[in-house]
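Schema walkthrough. Field components (list of strings):
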Amino acid sequence: MEIPFATIERISTYLRCLKRLKEKGIKKVSSRELSGFTKTTPEQIRKDLSYFGRFGKTGAGYDVSILTRKLERILKHKKIWNVCIIGAGSLGSALAKYNAFKTEGYDIVALFDNDPQKIGNNIGGKEIYSIESFPEITEKIGIEIAILTVPQEAIEEIEPIISKSKIRGIINFVPQLLNIKTRRKITTLDVDLAQKMYILSYLIKNKKEE
Amino acid sequence: MEIPFATIERISTYLRCLKRLKEKGIKKVSSRELSGFTKTTPEQIRKDLSYFGRFGKTGAGYDVSILTRKLERILKHKKIWNVCIIGAGSLGSALAKYNAFKTEGYDIVALFDNDPQKIGNNIGGKEIYSIESFPEITEKIGIEIAILTVPQEAIEEIEPIISKSKIRGIINFVPQLLNIKTRRKITTLDVDLAQKMYILSYLIKNKKEE
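Field assembly_structure (string):
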């Protein structure tokens, strides 16, 4: 059975929310409470979870620890993913120091850039390698995910290098779509920060008084 | 009629995609082509757009320019939004230099921090103000949107200051939910970068061969 992309997105929202509840020491949560945090309905939550089996008894609420563990297994499959960053500019450097990735088991282990001034340096303890060595280094270290933060005009130069590698997934922060051949081979998730602005300005304008 | 949040999210994806097509000089796009770029179905696109009226004739495809302009008006309402960043750390500084916001008409005009070493400095030509002056400065400059990039432990200190201001929307990069009182008063959109990792690792594992 194919699970809709929107369900996977929401499941990952529930998981991140459950983790925060767990940190606060909360042990049980109802679908109603969870819906309050995640901009969805209790019915939607129950439907989304039903794709993956049964979770807890009706009316009793979900056990936060158990549900966290189950959703983590569904989404993540393995304990640690090795991740690299392509583009050691300001956004790339900021993400290299971003703690939440490591906490969740996505370990940034290397950066890549084409600037000779940057190659060989460290950011947050991670080495910056030459982009030319991308296929070789990623295979050697066992990196499967790349975060793409290069300038828009560098995309054309970067794509053939990425295509030659064994990388499996890309989180793309560049506001441009990768070409269809790359996207067929490598799973790509676009993170468009400007898009968030559009959503927010719509929500501001249409906010209901509560 | 209330429009589902998921529709607004998708509409903003369509808009960003249309803008890229426009940059490439593409004048017409079918719902099928648009669906290929946006991980959704042609039926979903037509349904989402139908909330906002009729766009183009069946079978003829959408006029990229017209649809772009219409969706922009629906989501954005006005030409320029003034935006500030709370937390002039590495992520905040990177976002202050992030061009795509400006291109879309979301203009970052100020930063706020509590570090006396940073206050008074400039990042990308924008002044860093003391967080204490947040309600006053945002009102004076006419800032309605704040991007929150403070460390997690600073949230408790920051929330009462934000609550005193006339800010209308927050893009929250801190992996912690703001309290319910703040969220009732101020429209909040959480951007959870670690969540993207969960989605990507799921998609990698479940990628269909094409």
